[in-house]
Design goal:
Blueprint (H helix, E strand, L loop, with lengths): L3 E2 L3 E2 L4 H12 L5 H7 L26 H22 L9 E5 L5 H10 L2 E6 L2 H13 L6 E5 L12 E7 L7 H11 E14 L8 H10 L6 H9 L3 E8 L1 H12 L8 H10 L2 E10 L3
Parallel strand pairs: 3-4, 3-6, 4-5, 6-7
Antiparallel strand pairs: 1-2, 7-9, 8-9
The protein binds geranyl diphosphate and magnesium ion.
Amino acid sequence: MTILNPATGPVLRTSYQKSVAAYWNDNPNDDRVNTKLGEVDGLYHHHYGIGDPDLSVLTGPEDTRQDRIVKELHRLENAQADFLLDHLGDVRAGDRLMDGGSGRGGTSFMANQRFGCQVDGVTISEYQVGFANGQASHRGVADKVRFHFRNMLETGFEPASMRGIWTNETTMYVDLFDLFREFARLLEPGGRYVCITGCSNDVTGGRSSSVSWIDAHYGCMIHPRSEYFRALADNHLVPVEVTDLTAATIPYWELRTKSELATGVEKRFLTAYQEGSFQYLLIAADRVGG
Ligand code: GPP
Ligand code: MG
């Protein structure tokens, strides 16, 4: 059955998009690294962490060590989302924000908690829409935080309707020129776009085997750093801040290697970051012009 977004037609337009949706619809069967962390405080994330872990979690009683690691990894993932939200600028309770690729909703709930405003999350995974809307009801914020089965490349939302938009590790699934064209359409003049992403480093030349391995693991297509800035510039989005978070995320990955929830991707991230072929970036940009 083809599901239509009433405003735009089919939500999944290509076989690649269908395969990405299938991955995230089937993922819950083998997803303890995200569900166990989410259970700590009810914020379920699909992104990584930043900041200095408290390494004392690795010492102390062995029977509770794994729980301490889980809590610490989750704290670093919350810190990453907080850092992203710090860059959305002046958001008022009457504003509207959009989460592009909203996953299980963690960053959207944190945004609503912080700003008190409406948040619309879009994802092409129907499982994620259901999970996140369930969380919204459970948290008593379903009137303000809503998740939609929509494609962030063609949301169907009204032009200039968003004060801010973010993508938290989701841009590696889409063409950046198509994405930023849609975001430029959705943002009000002076609105802010914030992106946290992993990108390949143009300076090191072609993509490394670790970056290719990460792509294969998640079924994504990591973009070079340069492509972000070309696609932003082409779409009336002017960077106001760029932060290289690579050094800040390495300790998260080191701690994750010590968790029984480790998935095997940890050493690829560590190699890619340490050899310099991959970077973890925050980019904040303003919507300018007509
Ligand atoms: C997944 O987070 C994030 C992605 C699949 C995007 C890829 C990100 C890059 C920076 C390349 P997750 O929390 O679902 O992954 P995991 O299950 O490994 O924790
Ligand atoms: Mg995760």
